[in-house]
Amino acid sequence: MPPPVFRFAPSPNGFLHLGHARSALLNFDLARQSGGRLLLRIEDIDTTRCRPEYEQAIYEDLAWLGLTWEEPVRRQSEHLALYREAVDRLMREGLLYPAFESRAEIARLVDAKDRAGPWPRDPDGAPVYPGTGRHLAIDERDRSLSSGAPYALRLDMDAAAARAGPLFWTEQGAGPGGETGQVPAKPEQWGDVILARKDTPTSYHLSVVIDDALQGITDVVRGQDLFWATGVHRLLQELLGLPQPVYRHHGLVLDEAGQKLSKSTRSTALRDLRAAGTTPAQVRRLVGINPA
Fold first, then answer.
1. Contacts of 67 (CB under 8 A, 6+ apart)
2. Which of 14, 99, 124, 279 has CB atoms 3.0–4.6 Å from 263's, for a disulfide?
3. Among 151, 145, 233, 134, which residue's Cα sits nearest to residue 190?
4. Under 8 Å between Cβ of 32 and 291
C-alpha cells in the first residue's frame, strides 16, 4: 500500500496563529507516525488579500515549529487554467449559472425574505442565496454577460444533488456535535454556492477538491469550522469524478471569549509569540499537542 498523504494548506492573507499551528502540527505528527508524506499548499487565489510577505512568513513560522514538507510547494495561483477547465465542464453540463446581483442587492433580498419569515442560513450563519439567477431568461442573461457586468457562477444545488444522489464521507475525527464514522453529506445546507467569479475562475470549494485529488491527498486533517463544508466537497468530488480522501476534523483553538482565532481579528501571530520568547514546545502545549 502506498503511504498516506497529508497536507497543510494555509492562505497567505495574514500571519499564522495558534489555530494554524494546531492543524499544521497534527498533520505533521500524523504523517510521521504513519510513515506518510506531508505536503504544503499555498491557497492564494484571493489576489486582493494574499501577500508575498505573508507567504514568506508561513515558511518561516512552520520551519520554526520544526515542520518539514516535500518540495515543490503547490501555489494555487499558478493553476488557474486547470480550475477553469472544471468550471467549463460544469457549465457544459448545465450545473452552473451566472448570478448578477451585488452583495448589497442580495442583502436587500434577504431582508425582504426575513420580513416574511426567517430566511434559511448556511452552517456558517450566512443567508442562503435568495436570488433568481437560476431562473433568469437566457436572452437577459446573455445581455448581462455581453455588457461586461460582474457575476458569480453558482452551482445549481438542486440539479447537482439530484445527479449525485446520497453521499457520505468517512470521518476519523469528530464534528461539532460529535459526528464521526460515516457522515451523511448535506450540501443542500449551503444553497447555490459560488464556484467562480467573473474575475476569479475558481473558489475555495472548487480548488481544494481539485488540488487534493491531483496531489493524491489521502487524509484531510483540518478544523471543525470546515466540517459541514465537507458536504459541498463530497458533492464536487462526485460531479467531477474525483477520489475522496478520509477526513479528520479537530477542535479549534478558542480565544478568551470562546471565539475561534482569526486573522481578521488579529489573533496573536506565531511570529509575535516567537519574538516574545515562546518556544515551539510551548506552542505545542498551548494547542494541546504532546511535545514531539
1. 8, 24, 25, 28, 38
2. 14
3. 233
4. no
Asked if 101 contacts 131 with a C-beta cutoff of 8 angstroms, the reply is yes
Instruction: Give the tens place of pLDDT for each residue, 121-173.
Output: 999 999 999 988 999 999 999 999 999 999 999 999 999 999 999 999 999 99
Q: How many CA atoms lie within 13 A of 3 on its CB side?
A: 12
446581483: which residue's cell?
Answer: 101
Bridge-partner residues for 169, per DSSP? 183
pTM: 0.94
pLDDT at 259: 67
Residue with cell 442562503: 128
CA–CA distance, 234 with 246 (Å, rounded to integer):
11
Contact 215, 5 (CB under 8 A): yes
Beta-ladder partners of 7: 39
Residue 35 above 90 pLDDT?
A: yes
Q: Are 246 and 218 in contact (CB under 8 A)?
A: yes
- Residues with Cβ within 8 Å of 236's Cβ and at least 6 positions away in sequence, in order, are 195, 205, 206, 209, 242
Tell me the average pLDDT of the chain: 94
